[in-house]
Amino acid sequence: MRDAHRAPGFRLLLGALGVIVAMTLPRGLAAQLSPGPLARPHASLDVPLGCAKCHGGRKEPTTQKCLACHREIATLKQEDRGYHARGEAAAGTCASCHPDHAGREFDLIKWPQGSQAGFDHSEAGWMLEGKHKDVKCEGCHKARFRVHAVAELSPRDGGPRWAGLDTRCASCHDDPHRPTLGAKCTSCHDVAGWKPAPNFDHQKTKYPLTGEHRDTECDACHLAPRLNPRRAADGKLIPVFKPVPAKECSSCHADPHKAPTMAKCSSCHVTTGFRKLKRGAFDHDRTRFPLAGEHRTVACAECHVGYPARINRPAFSTCATCHSDPHRGQATLAGRAVDCAVCHEVNGFSPSTFTIAQHQATKYPLLGRHQIARCADCHRPQPTAAGRAVNGARTVADLRPSSSSCTSCHLDPHVATPAKQARSGNGGSVSNATCESCHTVNGFTPSTLTVASHEAYEFKLEGAHRTVPCAECHRELQRRDPRRQVTLLHEAARRRGLAPLTFEAATTCTSCHQSPHGQQFASRKDRGACESCHSLDVFTPAERFDHDRDSKFPLSPAHTRVPCTSCHVRAKGSGRLQYRGTVVRCEQCHSGGKR
Q: Is 410 in a helix, a strand, or coil?
């Protein structure tokens, strides 16, 4: 029990009794009495006559004396801030919580809940929540955190300082955003932790997140090198949240088109993905290559290699920058290579726009009926360059067909016989007979062959032959359709079944004419040659027949006046005039004689 007076509770009791005794004694006597030593912070008052600095008269409470000295507490009470300005602390006296005279080591604090650990921090106007629950009192109540003006009013040195802290986050925590986002950290963060920021809503900012921006990591934008983020004390980069340029897509994204003349990215693209375009937003006609014709239906990747992963800017000075030459370099005009646009247009590769007027500048100007011929009749299909399909086809017109002769394109309907039949004036062979010898480009028929030019052939036209239509002798002409005289040199035309115009040379009259005499004169030395009796001018009379010379029955003067048919009657059965075997005795014709 002898050490009981050293216990804090005992000292508190003695101190309280001392105060009461001092207050009841006369002023001079009371100053000489003390219930016990003052605590270390009040040690300077533990002197004779020092009691009056804290204790007034009987009716003067010590609270006013305390507040006169502890001006930081008085200020907090006046501002209605902190623990001392609310609840029982505001209504009670200072001594009820801060008794003294309990010895130099006494802490001067009587915790309402019995200990510092049990103190209800909400009574101080600041409830401990979230991460703050786990922080020790001394972790916050430090001299460097006392940002309020009361820090300069407190005379206390050493130990924790419970008054003077502010409820603003920045009073204890460094603001990594300063000064861009303001001082109210709770606009974005809460006491549960620094990350994430549950109170932050990007949709309420000047740049609401849409599309793929919603899934983008914050640091991807706010730690971008272009923002020059600074480093914290631990070396980590501090995100920059304001200002972050975002008016244009190019503020964050590189322009894959590298085209300063192009419109804003947002005029074509949407935030749901770079590969997705606004429906109807992109207008290719605003570029240097407006789309027209078939180009409107071409997939983007056909021209923009790598689309949509990347979009290059293809050259388009000529068609050949995108399209391979299906003609294998044959596309020339006047000896110079020309671009596709000379013959084709964007509405389609075929038909060609090459005109007859342009054809006149080639090595083969179109004349006569060639001007109405189909291009494909001469420019037959050939494989495209590298076998590449053009408009779905792997063949393309041959732009340089052979044109050295008519037979380069046309079948020779004569099977080359005119050259064999032709003879020069002295009987020699004519080797240069060509189609042009008888025909012109104005049409295959009629032929330009004349009676005079027929003289060059083996069968010269003489006499009545000069007036005979060609088809009378060349009967193959009678079997041909005059509209189909020209036969092309491709297989489809070969199947037309047109008979060849052989124009075989006639060697005898019977080559063309049927003999009306049958075999009557076959035993003759000339074998019954027509020309022995008949001329080329007329068949009857037989101008070359001499009855006295050529028959066994010379004609008397009287017989010359007798019609031939009086003696030469038609044979029964054949109906031919009988010339051989005719009666030669007079009585067979005269005096009623029988034949």
A: strand
Q: How many CA atoms lie within 13 A of 536 on its CB side?
A: 12
pLDDT along the chain (595 residues), means of 10: 41 47 46 75 84 74 83 85 84 86 87 83 88 89 75 58 81 83 88 89 91 91 91 88 87 76 76 78 81 89 80 82 78 72 86 88 90 86 69 73 84 63 43 78 87 84 89 73 43 50 77 86 87 90 89 88 88 85 82 54
Average of per-residue pLDDT values in the chain = 79
Spatial CA neighbour of 397 closest among 297, 480, 327, 322 = 327
- For the purposes of burial, counting CB atoms within 10 Å of the CB of 70, is it exposed (0-12), middle (13-18) or buried (19 or more)? buried
Between the CA of residue 6 and those of 3, 10, 95, 103, 386, what are the distances in Å? 5, 7, 20, 8, 111
pLDDT recorded at residue 22: 46
Which of 461, 455, 352 lies closest to 399 in space, CA to CA?
Answer: 352
Rounded distance between C-alpha atoms, residue 468 and residue 490, angstroms: 35
Q: Collect all residues with Cβ–Cβ distance below 8 Å to 107 and sequence separation of at least 6.
A: 39
The pLDDT value given to residue 210: 92
Other beta carbons within 10 angstroms of residue 286's beta carbon come to: 11
Residues 6+ apart with CB under 8 A from 460: 454
- Fill in the DSSP letter of residue 554: P
Angle at 322 between CA 320 and CA 327, to 5 degrees: 45
Give residue for tokens 């064999």: 420
- Tens digit of each residue's pLDDT (9 = 90 or more) over 381-398: 888 766 566 665 677 778
The tally of CA atoms less than 13 A away on the side-chain side of residue 145 is 20
Eight-class DSSP state of 168: S
Between the alpha carbon of residue 83 and those of residues 62, 80, 112, 139, 514, the distances in Å are 19, 9, 11, 19, 149
User: Which tokens sit at 202?
Assistant: 């990007």
Specify burial of residue 530 (Cβ count, 10 A radius: 0-12, 13-18, 19+).
buried
Torsional sign, CA 450, 455, 458, 459: positive
Per residue in 99-149, pLDDT tens?
888 888 888 888 887 888 888 888 888 888 999 998 988 888 887 887 765
